[in-house]
Write a structure and sequence with these properties.
2 domains, eight-stranded mixed β-sheet
């Protein structure tokens, strides 16, 4: 039988299907660490469904272009999703397209994680394009097949493939773990399953009302033993109102993991300022990030609202059309003004919409600062603090109480601190590595914080100001920092999940001797904790929050998703991550960082956190639209 040389033009359907399946296998290799031949059936059914539809609706003249475009677009999606997974550790759904406009702002970070092997998704396209151009250049007549597949056979094949795909979706859509679901369903069917889930959630929300949701939330929160028998008795909470009327400054530290606290490298403390501050502050060493797709902007949302990010869209993009109950709105009733400072353009992650939704009185963004070209974002932390201190001093001189939020950027990935501003020298084993660069960036962030605190003291603001600071999310990338190597280099035990997601939370209250509190906490808990020390009762104000006041709980439980699968949680003892469900999940001890074999007694925590996050999603979606 004669081998046809012009296979692409004579049989684009067959060739494109083969190429797509090779790319699906490549995607599984990059993302799921194996070709997973058996699971390629789901990919094949989904890919064939679309190919059959294109075959039916496309004339012979346009088949080459249409199938080639399909191949290119899918290649682009798989390429982008592989990069996305390498950075975020989760498989993106179609909702991630909302964040495409943010990519140019973090181009340096994306370029740093890009691997040459990812371009294999486009290898066939380059070859086919070269062959096409050579033939056109040589004047070779390109034959276009006049054969058309019988529509009936193609339609039957399409129905069969759709049925197979639907079977995979029906079976796998109940898996709470998004990565396991994507692995089971394949990339294309996973997108369909995500869309179906979103539709079901929207329908459920439309059929409810916010008062019922708030009541269900209060009942659920009341059912969990946040305090043990030695906890605070009923009555006035601990530390309630100890900072009533005082100014509030909240510092959100970029990519700041807790491992830097009290860490010494080659005889040099990485965070000397924070180490000293912790001595007379409340410090929570077992505090974790809870952000979703919006990353840094989600951390801002969390700390100000005590509402969980949905995980399927940046909260600044998806919910800035709501009137969000928040710390700025709460303090507005106490005659505070609220300002937020960030050296980037305010349109980055739709902050120009989020800040009014949260209720900030005023924001200061890129034009407010002198660009000292610290990194790709522009101004340094020192410049941001300089401007912020000037603005806050003016408010203080007017007798105006204020709430100020600062979002730092100098420790942003890829952690390149200008040589003249580096204040710590890495030993030979760390110099030039991402870990070494990261510690250098943390050290600079700590130094800038120290200069800011010095300025607050010089301007007479320190003794009248509550200072809270926390990390927004992890910094060190998994692929560049093997946990065993990190442990060896730093002389600590480092776990790729617990240690990576562990961020600091420090609360300094003037005139109050703080202490280190060992129970677990998360960004969801910041707002109610601040409200307590400021003497504002959330219950009396009718606020529904999904976190806890960390100064008045002994047992705590927080959920996390997006960077971990839905259903993951941290309690005082373990981090739990589900598999297809609870029984095949994994648990790690927070103190020893060792696996916990028997975690059956935590089933209640798993069911509770799933229900709490579901109520949070419903609540934020039912909030009233703002004008």
């Amino acid at each position: 039988m004669e081998l046809r040389a012009d296979l692409f033009k004579r049989s684009p359907f067959l060739l494109v299907f083969i190429l797509i399946m090779l790319k699906m296998a490549l995607f599984r290799l990059f993302v799921f660490d194996g070709m997973q031949i058996g699971r390629l059936i789901a990919d094949a059914a989904a890919a064939l469904s679309l190919l059959c539809v294109l075959e039916l609706i496309t004339t012979a003249r346009w088949k080459g272009l249409v199938f080639g475009s399909y191949n290119f677009l899918l290649s682009l999606l798989l390429f982008a999703s592989t990069i996305y997974f390498s950075y975020y550790g989760t498989v993106p759904t179609y909702t991630a397209l909302h964040g495409l406009s943010q990519v140019p702002q973090i181009g340096e970070s994306v370029g740093d994680i890009l691997q040459l092997s990812y371009y294999l998704f486009f290898a066939d396209i380059v070859v086919l394009l070269v062959v096409y151009l050579v033939k056109r250049f040589k004047g070779v007549q390109i034959n276009r097949s006049k054969r058309v597949a019988k529509p009936l056979y193609v339609a039957i094949a399409a129905l069969l493939c759709v049925s197979i795909s639907w079977g995979f979706i029906w079976k796998g859509s109940s898996i709470p773990n998004e990565v396991v679901m994507a692995e089971s369903l394949g990339f294309l069917d996973y997108q369909v399953a995500a869309a179906i889930k979103a539709g079901e959630k929207a329908a459920s929300i439309r059929n409810g009302n916010i008062k019922e949701t708030a009541a269900f939330t209060e009942e659920l929160l009341g059912s969990y033993p946040y305090q043990d028998s030695s906890g605070t008795p009923a009555g006035t909470p601990n530390f309630f109102g100890v900072a009533k009327g005082k100014n509030v400054i909240v510092l959100q530290l970029e990519a700041f993991q807790n491992l830097g606290i009290n860490l010494v490298v080659d005889g040099q403390p990485v965070t000397p300022v924070l180490n000293e501050l912790i001595g007379d502050s409340f410090y929570f060493p077992h505090f974790f990030q809870q952000i979703g797709q919006g990353n840094t902007s989600d951390a801002e949302f969390l700390s100000n609202t005590s509402i969980y990010p949905t995980g399927v869209i940046a909260m600044s993009t998806g919910y800035s059309d709501r009137r969000l109950p928040s710390l700025p709105r709460l303090l507005e009733q106490e005659q505070y003004v609220s300002n937020t400072f960030h050296v980037n353009d305010v349109t980055f992650w739709d902050r120009n919409r989020m800040y009014p939704a949260i209720g900030f009185t005023k924001y200061y963004d890129k034009p407010s600062f002198q660009n000292d070209h610290f990194n790709s974002f522009g101004a340094s932390d020192q410049e941001m603090y300089r401007v912020g201190l000037e603005k806050l001093k003016l408010l203080s001189d007017e007798g105006q109480p204020f709430y100020a939020q600062f979002v730092t950027t100098s420790s942003h990935h890829p952690f390149k601190v200008p040589a003249e501003l580096q204040r710590i020298k890495m030993p030979e084993g760390l110099a030039g590595t991402q870990l070494g660069n990261y510690l250098t960036a943390l050290n600079y962030t700590d130094y800038a914080l120290g200069e800011f605190i010095k300025g607050l003291k010089e301007q007479g603001l320190w003794e009248n100001t509550v200072l809270a600071l926390y990390g927004d999310h992890f910094g060190m990338q998994s692929k560049d920092n093997d946990p065993a190597w990190v442990s060896e280099q730093l002389g600590i035990k480092y776990n790729d999940r617990i240690s990576r997601f562990n961020i600091p939370f420090v609360l300094h209250v003037p005139g109050v001797q703080g202490k280190t509190l060992e129970h677990v906490g998360g960004q969801i808990d910041i707002m109610p904790t601040l409200a307590n020390v400021l003497g504002v009762s959330l219950k009396e104000r009718g606020y529904t929050v999904f976190g806890q006041d960390l100064l008045n709980v002994t047992n705590n439980l927080i959920g996390m998703r997006y960077y971990l699968p839905t259903g993951s949680f941290f309690n005082n003892e373990i981090m739990f991550v589900p598999g297809e469900g609870f029984e095949d999940g994994t648990a790690i001890d927070l103190k020893t960082l060792e696996p916990v074999e028997d975690f059956s007694k935590y089933r209640r925590d798993y069911d509770y956190i799933l229900e709490l996050m579901k109520l949070s999603d419903t609540y934020v979606s039912q909030l009233p639209m703002r004008e």
